[in-house]
Amino acid sequence: MEDVEITDVDEGRPQVEKPPLKNQDLGSLSLFVGDLLSQYGWHLLVVTVLVYVLIQYLSKRRSSQSRPTSPPQTQQDAALVARRQEAMEAARRKMQEELDAKAAVFREKQKQQEEEKRRQKIEVWESMQQGKSYKGTAKLSQTTEEASSSTTVMKPKTDKKSLRSADYNPLSGEGGGSCSWRPGRRGPSSGG
């Protein structure tokens, strides 16, 4: 193997010199940018969008802060506010007067009910002193008391017939029904 001689193929040919690149710096820069974009393109896109949104948000916030929050009040605004407050105060007074009137009516009704109860108790006591039946007057006083104190309308009870007789027991197996429980077949079911 020592006999082998290696010769360059281009040795005999004249070399054609290539002109140097005009912008070697831009060539390496374009290679670097291409490599960077191929590796981190999506990351750079997301960061760019986030920076854009942040700039828009900050510019809107700065513009809203630079505006005055409320213009200086004029005499008309002050008069308008005073009129609104007076109207609200008048409405409150009116509502309070209505509430007071309703409370007075309620108190009057309560006094009447208490007076009625007191009168009934006196009647019951007098009837007991005279030897009359206590139960009849007690029932009468209870029904009038319930009717006066209750605000809901009492519905009279209607006598309904029971759908089954009182001695019906569904577990006994007896009864007028045609259905009765039967145990299932034992063992594997056969299709035949």
Automatic annotation (TrEMBL):
Family: Belongs to the selenoprotein S family.
Residues covered by region (Disordered): 1-21, 106-192
Top-rank lineage group of the source organism: Eukaryota
Pfam family, one: Selenoprotein_S
Keywords, in A-Z order: Cytoplasm, Endoplasmic reticulum, Membrane, Selenocysteine, Transmembrane, Transmembrane helix
CC terms in the record's Gene Ontology section: Derlin-1 retrotranslocation complex; Derlin-1-VIMP complex
Comp. bias (Low complexity): 141-152, 179-192
Protein name: Selenoprotein S
Principal subcellular localization: cytoplasm
Organism: Seriola lalandi dorsalis
Ranges of compositional bias, category Basic and acidic residues: 10-20, 106-124
GO terms classed as biological process: endoplasmic reticulum unfolded protein response; retrograde protein transport, ER to cytosol
Mode of membrane association: Single-pass membrane protein
Location of the protein in the cell: Cytoplasm; Endoplasmic reticulum membrane
InterPro entries noted in UniProt: Selenoprotein_S (IPR009703)
Transmembrane segments annotated in the record for this chain: 40-58
